[in-house]
Amino acid sequence: MTCRTGAILRAAYDDLHVGIVLYDPDTGAVLDANDRLESIFGFTTGELRDLSVGTYTANTHSFSASEFHERLRASADGEPQSFVWRVKRGDGELVWVRLHLSRRADGLVRAEVRDVTDSYHTQRREELFWRLLRHNLRNGANVLTGHGERIATEAETEGVRRSAAVVRDTAGDLGRMAESVTEIERAMRGEDGGRRRPVADAIREVADDLAVDRPAATVEIAERERMWTVVDDAFTHAVAHALENAVVHADRSGPVVDVAVGPSPNTGRVEIRIEDDNPPIPNAELRALDDRAETTTTSHGSGVGLFVMKWCIESLGGELAIGSDDHRGNTIRFYLPPKAPST
């Protein structure tokens, strides 16, 4: 079929902040484009009409021009397409774009194009950061552990042995921090799609696992109302950290952690309330959770357990609230979107 050169976009498309381009699905030719598309691609519409898709596809990207044509044809057949593509602009700059292809009533394909270069690079830098952080924490912990054990074995004075114990304890903290970083990374990526489950049942499973390592502790779960939500690794990590923190930081034998599940009185969301009778969580730990607070060497807190809870719950579309009494007792609340029971 020959290229249909008479098709045009309405002038109103030029007012949009998203690029719009009209393709002939048979030839891959550009028929028309709005102003925003021209600024993203770095070509005028007239220039694009004379260029093949391969000309403005970055040759370093695994997504080829032939695959683009296949996507066009699939969209023309009634199967909308969404994908990321690397474009070589008219000035030679390479940019990342996200496209959504859909079929028009006249059989042509309309593409919505968004420049995602900044967010794409941010995502890649974030992935690199996580890898480096995990690697450095784990390696540092192993080095400290090895040297600490050697010093303790060969030490001739009690003072040196105490220092060796501090080194080993610090190494253990770093190792646990590396595990927490992995948990946060998985939560943010949403690798586990999760499934709808009764909230109290999911919490009981976490409590049962905790009882294996902490048999002296008691977790009492009160289900005020049957509530369902999406349960995945992020949910499990958040609840596990909340329960374990309440047990580990207890300064009395046989600690008891009270958990209540029910609807939030204000919003109807799932409310998970976890209460302990421990000394108050330090203000430095709580301030560090504030997104608006400036992180300094004196305000970063001593661990990442609260961050794991915060980021895991937020990855599920929820939020975390923490309250502490002046003398004793802490209350952690998770608010999560309620879901209908699975059928």
Number of helices: 9
SSE string: EEHHHEEEHHEHEEHEEHHEE
CATH class of the largest domain: Alpha Beta
CATH homolog superfamily of the largest domain = Histidine kinase-like ATPase, C-terminal domain
Q: What number of domains?
A: 3
Separation of the first and last Cα atoms: 49 Å
Biggest sheet: strands, sense, closure? 5 strands, antiparallel
Protein name: histidine kinase
Catalytic activity: ATP + protein L-histidine = ADP + protein N-phospho-L-histidine
GO molecular function: ATP binding; phosphorelay response regulator activity; protein histidine kinase activity; protein kinase activator activity
InterPro entries: BphY/WalK/GraS-like (IPR050351), HATPase_C_sf (IPR036890), HATPase_dom (IPR003594), His_kinase_dom (IPR005467), PAS (IPR000014), PAS-like_dom_sf (IPR035965), PAS_fold (IPR013767)
Features:
9 helices, disordered N terminus, elongated, Beta-Lactamase, alpha+beta, Heat Shock Protein 90, 343 residues, 3 domains, transmembrane helix, five-stranded mixed sheet, five-stranded antiparallel sheet
What does this structure look like?
The chain has 3 domains: 105 residues, Beta-Lactamase; 73 residues; 152 residues, Histidine kinase-like ATPase, C-terminal domain (Heat Shock Protein 90, 2-Layer Sandwich). 41% of the residues lie in helices and 22% in strands. The strands form 3 sheets. It has a 5-stranded antiparallel β-sheet with strand order 2-1-5-4-3, with helices on both faces. A 5-stranded mixed β-sheet has the order 7-9-10-12-11. Helix 4 packs antiparallel against helix 5 and helix 5 packs parallel to helix 9. The radius of gyration is 28 Å and the shape is elongated. The N terminus is likely disordered.
